[in-house]
Amino acid sequence: MKTILLVCLGLVAGAPTHFAQETKPPVRLALVGLNHDHALGFLPRVTGRCDVQLVGIVETNQDLIARYTQRYHLATNLFYPSLDALFAGAHPQAVATFTSTFDHLRVVEACAKQGVDVMMEKPLAANLKQARAIAAAAQKSGIQVFVNYETSWYPGNHAAFALVHDEHQIGDIRKMVFHHGHRGPKEIGCSTNFLAWLTDPVLNGGGAINDFGCYGADLATWFMDGKKPVSVFAVASQFKPDVYPKVEDDATIVLTYPQAQVVLMPSWNWAMDRKDMEIYGQTGQVLVPRGDVVRVRTAAVPKETEIVPPALTGVNADPVAYFAAVVRKEIKPAGLGALDVNVTVVEILDAAHQSAKTGKAIKL
């Protein structure tokens, strides 16, 4: 504790900037649910820092409680059996939820009654009805709702946005292609608790379409200034019905805009992990093969130029710093994590499922 205090006061040489400059009281943060494996990457970000304080975790699964307590040396009195017990005992200012996607609505509605801001892992909701209900609860209560994507923190994505959107280096966008996915959640070793709902068509809203289609839909909506596509056409496949009998494990989704086309390729069948994108404009192209690399070709400079953008800093450096700034009302959620953007994302995903079932393009 003494070391953390010294770091917060900036008295430890080499302390990270967002720690050393932190002099405000920490945001009281709670976690709801541990059956989403992204909690494994989030918890280490929370501990030992000064902008947030972990005050509680809602979880009733004793195996998960034991696993996380042992792995992260958590105090047993951090755990609460329900949201009501959490609010009464821990008085959080903010909640990060790691439940099934279907349960996001339940968590937001409970937090809205308490005036507590919410961050959830992507996507926003399992279906459009839920997404709209989340937006309505947030608007009525005045709470902030923020959707966390790994790709929100890729410096390459922000550099590409600046080149394309702010600097107009390739003219108007004509085509975007997004590849997102991996070999499959079971194949890469996701926990049984995670798999139980991730491969359920109700609790996840689908399979690969919802799990990875949301990334491309989110980025496309961001690049398109929040505009919806005119139509959505999708082909979904089940290449591994013995592994994923209830949901699609691969899809190709075409979004049609008045002057552009976007292709989303979410899959649990990629040979390698990938989260990359290609943007083609009237006069050039911007490719982001990795989160930290951008490759540019333009009519003025036809030879491909590779750019290594600097790491993101300040509140944009990671989801915890960003969420803390949101709770303190220093910023409002914008861009990739914004609520309005993500309602559109879920509308696109819903249309993709409908198109895949009917074989027809769905007009929005």
CATH class of the largest domain: Alpha Beta
Strand count, sense and closure of the main sheet?
Answer: 9 strands, mixed
Proportion in helices: 25-40%
Mean pLDDT across residues = 94
Query: Number of domains in the coordinates?
Result: 2
Radius of gyration: 21 Å
Total count of helical runs of at least 4 residues: 12
The end-to-end span amounts to 53 Å
Beta-strand portion reads: 15-25%
Supply the CATH superfamily name of the largest domain: Dihydrodipicolinate Reductase, domain 2
* SSE class: alpha/beta
Which features would summarize this protein structure in a list?
12 helices; alpha/beta; six-stranded parallel beta sheet; 35% helix; Rossmann fold; 364 residues; Dihydrodipicolinate Reductase, domain 2
Describe the structure.
- This protein is 35% helix and 24% strand.
- It contains twelve helices and 15 strands.
- The model is unreliable at 1-7 and 9-15 (pLDDT under 50).
- The strands form two sheets. Strands 14-13-12-11-7-10-9-8-15 form a nine-stranded mixed beta sheet.
- By secondary structure, the protein is of the alpha/beta class.
- The chain folds into two domains: 2-149, 3-Layer(aba) Sandwich (Rossmann fold), CATH 3.40.50; 151-312 and 338-363, 2-Layer Sandwich (Dihydrodipicolinate Reductase, domain 2), CATH 3.30.360.10.
- Helix 10 (208-223) crosses helix 12 (339-358).
- The chain has helices at residues 2-8, 17-20, 39-46, 62-72, 83-89, 104-114, 128-141, 155-166, 192-198, 208-223, 319-327, 339-358; strands at residues 27-32, 52-58, 79-80, 94-97, 117-121, 145-148, 173-181, 231-237, 250-257, 260-267, 274-281, 284-290, 293-298, 305-307, 362-363.
- A hairpin with a 2-residue loop joins strand 9 (250-257) and strand 10.
